[in-house]
Amino acid sequence: MSRQLVATGLSRGGRTSSDHASHAVNKALERVGLSHANGVLLFLTPDFASNPEPALRAAARAAGCTQVIGCTGAGVLTDQEWVLDSPAAAAMVFGGTIRLGLPCAGTAGTHSILSLCTPSGLTADWLDTPTPRIGAVSADLEGEGPFKVWHGSRIAEGGFVEAVIEGVDTAINVSQGVRALTSPIEVAEVHGYDVLRLGNYPALNVLVKALPAGVRQMERIPLHLIMGGVTFGDPSTAIRDGRYRLNHIVSANVNDKSITLSHPLNRGERLFWAMRDALAAERDMRTSIANTVEALGNEPDFAFLFPCMGRGPNFFGNRDRDLELLRERFPSLPIIGIYGNGEIGPLHETNHLYQYSVVMGLFHARPA
User: Fold this and answer.
1) Residue 146 in contact with residue 359, Cβ under 8 Å?
2) Nearest to 136 by CA among 291, 349, 337
3) Using CB atoms within 10 A as the burial measure, which of 66, 160, 209, 318 is most buried?
4) pLDDT tens digits, residue range 143-180?
5) Hey, how many other C-beta atoms are within 10 angstroms of the C-beta on 43?
């Protein structure tokens, strides 16, 4: 950019006050040197969820525009810091040729779609579009709600909002960050949610044999850290390329050596066993950043980062390594995001709701 068009601001404190929203917007405007914004992406912590309207109005007044889009999350983050434990507002302001527009038929395929929703607002039909989506599901730390999303400085009663980021080129990537324990194996026998055989062996036997020795010898296997990965396309490169969706384990059944998963499979699909691992996640995030920069073809001017609330500081030992790695690669890059209850991103020519992952979007401003 000939001059910076995007900046972030963050405000936090002990009280749930609409002043946090205006302070965050004013900080962002000051950093970018604008008197007003074309649009504002505003994220609030769950403390605001019961009544976010005063904060939305405060943000609109500070920005001098009504195009305020966002949602509540379990926590918020910017390039400055992350917040999970106190009331906070994070804002990104857009100026110059960069605007937040409404998706329409004419923009399909030329823009990615910023997509935010509540758990009740998420539907398969909404996700099922060839245009890449990037976003998250509104969340709080307890999973009880209320959950709120907004557009045009107003609460979206339908539970979802979407916008295109006009004036930019975009690249989106997802870091699922699991450690593969096996290669993809054909599902030979399955009954609904129960996988009975992988290849020539009972599914449970394949999993137990693949577990690291220290885990296999534990009195109780930590099934919450282990999951299946269902691949798309060429199975020999699917793990490396991230072409898989995670399928969580519900139970391991000793009697018939089967494993019950959270989503049903079909015979002939390919599944590998995987385990959540902080070092694997960090390595995968480094690769994701490099691949996204390559796909963008330019240095990014700003970024969106949507980690699962189970992937951020709670996973990395009170540090958000995903955010740190992106800041290390681009120290002055404006970044904004929330910790959500699911991450929305592209997968195999459609869109997918990820879990325990981080969805990242890098944006480069087109010449005016």
Assistant:
1) no
2) 337
3) 160
4) 888 999 999 999 999 999 999 999 999 999 999 989 99
5) 31
